Amino acid sequence: KAPGFALLGEPGRSGDIVLELKTVADVALVGYPSAGKSSLISVLSAAKPKIADYPFTTLVPNLGVVTAGSTVYTIADVPGLIPGASQGRGLGLEFLRHVERCSVLVHVLDTATLESDRDPVSDLDVIEEELRHYGGLDDRPRIVVLNKVDIPDGKDLADMIRPDLEERGYRVLEVSAVARTGLKELSFALADIVAKARAAKPKEEATRIVIRPKAVDDTGFTITQEEDGLFRVRGDKPERWVRQTDFNNDEAVGYLADRLGRLGVEEGLMKAGARAGDGVAIGPEDDAVVFDWEPTMMAGAEMLGRRGEDHRFEAPRPAAQRRKDRQAERDDAAREYDDFEPF
Questions:
Q1: Cα distance between residue 6 and residue 142, in whole Å
Q2: What CATH number has the domain bearing residue 133?
Q3: Which domain holds residue 107?
Q4: What is the arithmetic mean of pLDDT over 167-172?
Q5: Which of 31, 69, 92, 204 has the greatest number of beta carbons closer than 10 A?
């Protein structure tokens, strides 16, 4: 079958969508810039982040995979946390969302900082304040990692502040990413917390998700008579069908009439008091199709016009009729020959 028409496309819709990516990791390393978070990830996993001796070296979260015994977990470096990070200072607000799905937070404290106005305990307090302002992270277990203890001054400072941190309830580990000391204890400690967090999560039963599209444009239609006597048809379906119709094609117009008839528009016009020749508009005032109504009860509504004449839709003639027609054509040809007079 060869179609004689096609429905037109409808006007498209455009919009702006903002997508926020949240890194899915089990462990989040948080701390001041240059505290050694990227260095830790590079020695705990196979990740190769950029490492340098200046702040804000890390501009994107780094993600690594750590294996500790039978436990495999992911660890992420959350860069750019400074005072005011939760309000947008530095890179904090952009990357704080990456800690939302983590099972444990690791405070990486720099015990060898050269800044006179900073110390590891105050750094911890600042980061905790930013996490509190961000919200939703109070229930996550914490571990404090005192980094850079390979430096003599760093080791002395770590021994000095460790009792204070343990009094606050933190588990404290001393490590050195450069000397690779304390890393095994750290990796297994994190694996233990991650395993407990996974075990505590309720098991999700495997369910089969069936998506059933909701019926659209199922709101019917309305018919109102305006002051000038015009009958106006409004409804999602009839208006959409009008937009899809090529009115330069008689068959397409006839198909539209069939659809409107099946929807009940013709019956609705009769009930509304419309008579033959009355004006009918489908759609809003500024964009409507207007026609003179011709009521019909025939199968295949002819509200807007008749179907296009197309031999492909004609019913085949019976064999006897075809033979009769061919004989009539031969008789006509014979008469023309008998009437022929040569010059």
A1: 64
A2: 3.40.50.300
A3: 27-200
A4: 90
A5: 31
